[in-house]
Each structure stands twice: as structure tokens, then as C-alpha cells.
């Protein structure tokens, strides 16, 4: 037989519900954008979507396809032309999950567009996660303008062998950024973080272990950013 007075039981139940509600509201929602060549349904995107959801305890990880991916395959437009569509997805997500911190994540081109969206004044972004940021353009020039405009905490995950983002160029850019930022390097990783077998053998590690370490670094950064 329950010996607690009914009033006390109600109070403890209410306190528990309030605490659960607080924890639920603190769970971030992530909008995760794909890169230039593969859609949100790709194995890479689905794997990282699941890893981000678990590591960040996210209420949801929303993926989508930019319009150019539908129908006949064609080259993506300039990143600037994708901002409106991306921001509409973000606004729809915020309407669905009011009160949850918003994290914008992206693969390559998707991270660049996400950074542009994060700089819009009518969207409140808590942090940005860039997976393989394409710092160098087709002509080889450093494209740092978007990053220098950011004011929200930004996490970079880059492969050490990523030709689109030489680490020395990124380091120079990071020093010029006003936004708080951190970098996690996947040693031996290419633009999609793929590590060669010889490198993995030499380092006595696996692809999964290296990617898991990156995800944990992201989780630590997001946790610190949300608390701050």
C-alpha cells in the first residue's frame, strides 16, 4: 500500500513532469543539409543523420533535398541561390519544434549554405556544424566571406587530406572569425572523411572509431555552446 499522502504524490508527479518537460525542450533540433553530389537519402547522409541524432540527443534531425536534385541530374546552382529554400525548411522545422535550440548541420556545400542561413537576422540559430566545409572554390580561391560573417558558435570537422579545405587555410580563416569555433580533424580523411586502409592499419584504428570520435567532439561542442 502506498504510504505517501496523495498531495505529496501529486506534487512529486508534477515536479517530475516539469523536469521532463525542461529536458525535452533542451533537446536540440538539427536541420542537416546534403552536399552537392548526393541526396539526403545517400548512405553517408543517413549514417551521419543517425549518429548526430544519438550523440546530440536531438528531438529530430531533419534532412531534405535541394530542388535541383529532383528529376534529371544537373549541377547545383550557386550556393546563394539555395538560401531561400534552405531557410524555408528551417522555418518549418522551428514551427514544428518551438522552443528547441536549432542546430544547422551540413555536408560540404550544405554546410556553406547553412552558414549563410545562420547569418539571416530572422532565424535564431544556436550553433552550426560544418562537415567537410568547402573553403576553396573551383578556381582555387579561398571563400571565407560566409564564415567571417557568422556570429553563432561553429564546429568544423575536416579530413586532413581534404583538397577542398587545406587545414592551414582553414586555420587562418578561423583566426579571423568573430564567432566562437572549434575544429576536429579526421586524420587521413578525405572530403567525405574516408580513410585509406594503410592509414587505418598504421594508426591501429577503424573508420567507425574515427567518425565516432568526431561525433563526440561535435556533441561536446554543442553541449558547451547551449550551456553558454
Walk me through what this model shows:
Residues 1-20 are annotated as: Disordered. Residues 29-222 form the KANL3/Tex30 alpha/beta hydrolase-like domain. This is KANL3/Tex30 alpha/beta hydrolase-like domain-containing protein. Pfam families: Abhydrolase_11. By secondary structure, the chain is of the alpha/beta class. The chain has one domain: 3-Layer(aba) Sandwich (Rossmann fold), CATH 3.40.50.1820. It has 8 helices and 6 strands; from the N terminus they run H-E-H-E-H-E-H-E-H-E-H-E-H-H. The chain has helices at residues 6-26, 43-56, 83-96, 109-118, 145-149, 167-176, 197-203, 207-227; strands spanning 29-33, 60-64, 102-107, 127-131, 154-159, 181-186. Strand 3 (102-107), helix 4 and strand 4 form a beta-alpha-beta unit. Helix 2 (43-56) packs across helix 8 and helix 3 (83-96) crosses helix 4.
List the helices and strands and how they pair.
Layout: H1 6-26, E1 29-33, H2 43-56, E2 60-64, H3 83-96, E3 102-107, H4 109-118, E4 127-131, H5 145-149, E5 154-159, H6 167-176, E6 181-186, H7 197-203, H8 207-227
Helix pairs in contact: 2-8, 3-4
Structural class: alpha/beta
Largest sheet: 6 strands, parallel
Predict the CATH topology. Answer: Rossmann fold
Q: Could you spell the SSE succession in H and E letters?
A: HEHEHEHEHEHEHH
Amino-to-carboxy terminus distance = 46 Å
CATH superfamily: Alpha/Beta hydrolase fold, catalytic domain
Number of strands: 6
- Overall tally of domains: 1
Q: Which descriptor suits the 3D outline?
A: globular
With strands numbered from the N-terminus, the spatial order across the biggest sheet is 2-1-3-4-5-6
Strand content range: 5-15%
CATH class: Alpha Beta
Low-confidence stretches: 15-24
Under the CATH scheme, which architecture would be assigned?
Answer: 3-Layer(aba) Sandwich
**Mean pLDDT level:** 90
Specify the number of helices. Answer: 8
Amino acid at each position: 500500500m502506498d504510504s505517501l499522502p496523495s498531495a505529496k504524490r501529486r506534487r512529486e508527479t508534477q515536479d517530475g513532469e516539469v523536469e521532463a518537460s525542461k529536458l525535452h525542450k533542451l533537446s536540440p533540433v538539427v536541420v542537416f543539409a546534403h552536399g552537392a553530389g548526393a541526396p539526403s537519402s545517400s548512405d553517408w547522409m543517413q549514417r551521419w543523420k543517425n549518429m548526430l541524432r544519438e550523440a546530440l540527443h536531438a528531438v529530430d534531425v531533419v534532412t531534405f533535398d535541394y530542388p535541383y536534385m529532383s528529376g534529371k541530374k544537373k549541377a547545383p546552382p550557386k550556393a546563394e541561390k539555395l538560401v531561400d529554400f534552405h531557410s524555408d525548411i528551417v522555418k518549418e522545422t522551428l514551427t514544428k519544434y518551438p522552443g528547441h535550440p536549432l542546430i544547422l548541420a551540413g555536408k560540404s556545400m550544405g554546410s556553406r549554405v547553412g552558414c549563410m542561413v545562420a547569418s539571416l537576422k530572422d532565424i535564431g540559430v544556436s550553433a552550426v556544424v560544418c562537415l567537410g566545409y568547402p573553403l576553396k572554390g573551383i578556381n582555387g580561391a579561398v571563400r571565407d566571406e560566409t564564415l567571417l560573417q557568422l556570429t553563432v558558435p561553429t564546429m568544423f570537422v575536416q579530413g586532413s587530406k581534404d583538397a577542398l579545405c587545406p587545414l592551414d587555410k582553414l586555420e587562418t580563416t578561423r583566426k579571423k572569425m568573430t564567432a566562437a569555433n572549434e575544429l576536429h580533424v579526421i586524420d587521413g580523411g578525405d572530403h567525405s572523411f574516408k580513410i585509406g586502409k594503410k592509414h587505418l592499419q598504421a594508426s591501429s584504428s577503424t573508420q567507425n572509431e574515427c567518425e565516432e570520435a568526431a561525433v563526440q567532439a561535435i556533441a561536446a561542442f554543442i553541449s558547451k555552446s547551449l550551456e553558454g
